[in-house]
Design brief:
Length: 339
Amino acid sequence: MKILIRGTNWIGDSMMSVPAMREVRRIFPDSHITLHTKSSSEGLFENASFIDDIISFKRNRWPAVDVYDNVTFLRDEGFDLAILFPNSFESALTVFLSRIPIRVGYNKDARGLMLTHPIAVPEWKNRRHEVFYYLNLVGELERRLLGRDSVSSATPDISIEISKERKRQALKLLAAAGADPEKKTVLLGVGSTNSNAKRWPTDRYAALADRLTTECGTNTVLIGSSGDSVVASEVASIATSPPINLVGSTSTAEAASIISVSDLLVSNDMGLAHVAPAVGTRSITIFRHDVPCAPCMLRECPIDHRCMTGISPAAVFDQAAIALTDPIMEIYETTGSVS
């Protein structure tokens, strides 16, 4: 069987769909599995053992053009089954027009008629981790096509593989940028592409960078996409000991590789925060402080951003220092309980 998995649209969601993709491989061990994903996420799966091929695409300004371009290519590939992780109408229309015989996805946004197996959105959707949302889709597929249920008892495995060669290249890239290979490396993800409200202020990141560099003796490195360049430049300009700035100068694959050879990632709630645990690197993710107006879920704070300014550089530094020295610590998350 030739299986097409339509990947999610954001890096964080891509990481949360990894356990589901691993389950597709497990329940269809002899099938040829192709991941159809945005080019921005392609590099995350360069060494993935649970897929055989990747077909990437770039978003066009006009969705109709995306559909046409993808259908033109996919129609001739002879896929037998399409599994849609996104909830978009466009993804369902694409596999429908590509004439893929079996089409499985959640029944949202009036796309049920384009799916051969529309799956109802589970009632627990907003109460459980997003990992289980994707796993549930594959579980329903297993029940309907194979008449059994093994996915529901599976332990989610979020890990992704980074080859030794990619790690060697990442270390070379860090060294070329000025990192000392004898020192520990802390990465700072200071941006957040889809929400300014989720960003910890730049002056606090600068203060954290200074303390990490001077008190812990680390290589302190800014990392992120080109969309984070402005905020990263501001952090670098404020810091007394300017961190190495790699924001916008690496591909997604290179960013994942750099994270895999680093000792700690401190970041906002962003895509790379999900990559760190997937490659086995400790992480501290800065979430919103508990304030009366939270959670607002707004992209821009209309008042004073108190949910993020309430988290002090000292609080984050203290946890970072522990993460760099505690041999048994795995993951710390700086949440609203830290002030």
